[in-house]
Amino acid sequence: MGVRLYNTLSGKIEPIPKPKGKPLRMFVCGPTVYDHPHIGNARTAVIFDAFVKYLRSTGVKVFYLVNVTDIDDKIIAKAKAEKTTFSKIADEYWDIYQKNMKALGVTAATKFAKATKFISQIQAQVKTLLKKGFAYEIERDGIYFDVSKFSDYGKLSRRTAEQAEDGVSRIDQSIKKRNKADFALWKFSYDDEPGWPSEWGLGRPGWHIEDTAITEYFFGPQYDIHGGGLDLKFPHHEAELAQQEAASGKKPFVKIWMHTGMLTLEGQKMSKSAGNFMTIDQLLKNTPPNVFRLLILSHHYRSPLNYSVKLNQEMSRKWFSIMEFLAKLDMAEKNSKEKKLGTPEFDKFSKAIDLALSNDFNTPEAFGVLFSFINLIQPKIWSLSKAEAKESTRAVVKFMKSFGFSIGFPKIPSKVKVLAREREKLRQSQQFIQSDSLRKKANDLGFVVEDTPLGFFIWPKG
Length: 462
Prior knowledge:
Shape: elongated
Radius of gyration: 27 Å
Number of strands: 15
Strand content: 15-25%
Low-confidence stretches: 166-171
Structural class: alpha/beta
Mean pLDDT: 93
Helix content: 40-55%
């Protein structure tokens, strides 16, 4: 069954493109490297990482491109405040971002493209827009895109140029603009600000045009899927669409626009000044990456998500239960002497998963199917045959790995294993008081010893 996604542009759920003889081309807006990335950034990164890994697990080839904004007003301002260069700030926080992504298991990107490596391509697009009459120059300011010349402006966000007040970034503010929604393509550099030579003078790119210059370089003027957070839909993605379609004359610029919902923290919008803010580094101090990934994928990618300590704890318990289930299956596979009793509905499980994921990447529904499968197998886990235990493991691990989860069991200390073995001997000889004493010792060390028809099973206390 083909994968279908909600397309922000059309407002409908549509099949993903199937390019002939080449990979599906997908671009997602990446970081502006001026500060520590936060858990809202992490949500978007994890969603698209999981989506691409899922597509690849189904045999779809994907060229997944991510930009890196390494020149921007925020970067310049931070460099001035710290009395250093913009490139040192950008390099420092790009390193932090990469470490954070590696820690989160976000590894699906085919290519990261830094804006400063594509200055010539950016200038070429600006030149094209000027030549076609879609751009104009403001003296001692920059080159701006004239939204009044692009009749489709607003078709992605369903907004008009008159609704642009809340979509103006600092780099786009100018009292000399023709229209308040006009946005900067090239900003002239003054007062020792960083810049690159151009036929219009020393300057730097606007925020929006770096993306279209990068995607045109790798994909051409049209491609398959563009992703990003919902907060980027206007003005950023609207500007991208306008400038690329204006420059190339080809429509649509992108076939499917895929937007992730917003993340709040404990019911409030994240704000550093209000003290309601969490970086990825802060998250990872107390939350394993697998738990955070489960938290993200247990909610639909388009829905708003409120991150809370309570939700984190709930997801930790769920992850713990999945790993415990797999550990018991592993024990059953190694020790079972049962004959095959009949496949426990693997086909139904796989089909239900495929149905959920093919319908707008419905991961919460897919995880609902997973837990239903676990609940079906759990009561008879010790009576499974080796083959059934192996097939159950294969089904669950395949599902988890298709989303980028790493599977691993907690290490059981040798001291606890010795206690469990000694306890089993005492129990076999019906010395129950002594065996209970050893079980308590294991419990005090943080481990539960469970008696099963296949022997003892050790697991950390929840």
